[in-house]
Amino acid sequence: MTEVLTALSHQWESSVATTLEGLRDVTVTRRCADVSELLSVADAGLGDTAVVSSDLRGLDLAVVNRLRANRIRVIGVHPADDEPAERRLRQLTITVTLPVDAGTDRWEVSLQEGWGASDDLEAALSGDAGVGAGQQSAPDHPEESTDGDAGWRPAGSGGIAAGREHVGSRDADDPSGDDAAAGRVTGSRPVPERASVIAVWGPTGAPGRTTVATTLAAEVAGRGVEVLLVDADTYGGCVAQTLGLLDEAPGVAAACRAADQGLLDLSALARLAPVVVPGLRVLTGLPKAERWPEVRAAALERVLELSRSLVQVVVVDCGFCLEDDEELSYDTVAPRRNEATLTSLAASDLVVAVGGADPVALQRFVRGLQELGTVPSGEPVPVVNRVRSGAVGSRPQSRIADSLLRFAGLASVRFVPDDATAVDAALLAGRSVVEHAPDSPVRRAVADLATGLLPWTVAPPEPRERRRRGRRRGRGRRSSSAVGA
């Protein structure tokens, strides 16, 4: 027996309810007048299927996710031949949609479909760009399991050792790995079917998260790879200022609002994330920390998932705090200050964990890594930034590596040397270190990091025979010129 909850506008409420009541093994449990009543009934445990209309006032991505959290399947209805209304339902991750005049046969088939049902119209999520079907906001990442061992744990606490440099697991059935994504191969390099999301995180104390994130994104973009840099720091986002961009209209807030209302597709996301340098798009952050409620978890997750179809690599600059706001955890509707960081970590394939190189920063880094192990996140790659002998003594890399191995169980750590002159000059110019100081040791260290994280971004070496022929031709030309002299 299927228990249906309806929340429809007055134009369609009567006709749809009459059709549902005529179906076998279907009971209309409650005909809700608005979204508030629908959510109240769902929280009370009534019904297993919700039928909503595209023009229902207050229907957004948060409502859909809350219904799914109560194990309620969502079916959308829209006026016949109204493509924009159907598109909006799809962009709200409602995969089963029907016209209001659908017959009983189509309703029976739709009600029998299980979770995750989809059809070819799911391509509307990509703005007619040919992106595959079936993208949903519901988390499908294996690291987001609901058991108690969801997060990564440092060595010594029953977890795996950090520092493994490989791309996270890929879902072979993921819809974003379609022909359109496969067509973005640069040269002969094999590009993963599913775009990678790299979260750059670090503990409190400004260890250099934004510097590493901007340099990493610019470095990968310089290799001919399409990159999106997202500023998801709700405490002190400064990617726009670092790159010399206007931050009066934060892109991440606008993208989250559009995703929440079911209005975000690839074309809209591309408009909100302009190209700063060839290959690099930037989704700017919040100019004021007080605007953090504008970045909701469900909407940001949808933005990151859609970003996988826009570019080949997504780099997210996260905030430092990982607290889950325990005082508000009982209320699933209330916004949480740190949900942007937690959502970015949970959606990531890899986490670049950045720490400082002085004693205080290293202590925070060790404790932060322990806290990172308690939340769902991608595979962490520890990076110590601003390494210098003046802070820890001679042979700073060896000393820091020994300390992190002893206190955090980290067998592999990457280091970024201190080059304050180059970083300050790049910040003053409003450019990345890659553009302003390409010979800086910071750039070289981050380039090595990019190669370790994304080895497929490195151009394949030139065949040996071709190089040999080139050298022969070169010697011939030099010999000729010498004779002519």
Keywords:
single chain, 485 residues, alpha/beta, eight-stranded mixed β-sheet, five-stranded parallel β-sheet, 19 helices, 38% helix, disordered C terminus
- C-alpha Rg (nearest Å): 26 Å
Alpha-beta content class? alpha/beta
Distance between the termini: 96 Å
Strand order of the largest sheet: 8-9-7-10-6-11-12-13
Describe this structure in words.
Mean pLDDT is 82; it is low at 114-187 and 472-485. The chain starts with a strand and ends with a helix. It has 19 helices and 13 strands. The strands form two sheets. It has an eight-stranded mixed beta sheet with strand order 8-9-7-10-6-11-12-13, with helices on both faces. Strands 2-1-3-4-5 form a five-stranded parallel beta sheet, with helices on both faces. The protein is of the alpha/beta class and 485 residues long. The radius of gyration is 26 Å and the shape is elongated. It has helices spanning 13-21, 35-43, 61-69, 83-91, 104-112, 179-182, 209-221, 239-242, 251-260, 266-272, 297-310, 339-347, 359-372, 389-392, 396-407, 420-429, 433-436, 441-453, 464-484; strands at residues 2-7, 26-32, 49-53, 73-78, 96-99, 196-201, 227-232, 275-277, 280-283, 313-318, 350-355, 379-387, 414-417. Helix 7 (209-221) packs across helix 18 (441-453) and helix 11 packs parallel to helix 12 (339-347). It is 38% helix and 15% strand.
Provide a quick synopsis of the model.
The chain is built from 19 helices and 13 strands. The protein is α/β, with parallel strands linked by helices.
Describe the SSE topology.
Elements: E1 2-7, H1 13-21, E2 26-32, H2 35-43, E3 49-53, H3 61-69, E4 73-78, H4 83-91, E5 96-99, H5 104-112, H6 179-182, E6 196-201, H7 209-221, E7 227-232, H8 239-242, H9 251-260, H10 266-272, E8 275-277, E9 280-283, H11 297-310, E10 313-318, H12 339-347, E11 350-355, H13 359-372, E12 379-387, H14 389-392, H15 396-407, E13 414-417, H16 420-429, H17 433-436, H18 441-453, H19 464-484
Parallel strand pairs: 1-2, 1-3, 3-4, 4-5, 6-10, 6-11, 7-9, 7-10, 11-12, 12-13
Antiparallel strand pairs: 8-9
Helix pairs in contact: 7-18, 9-11, 11-12
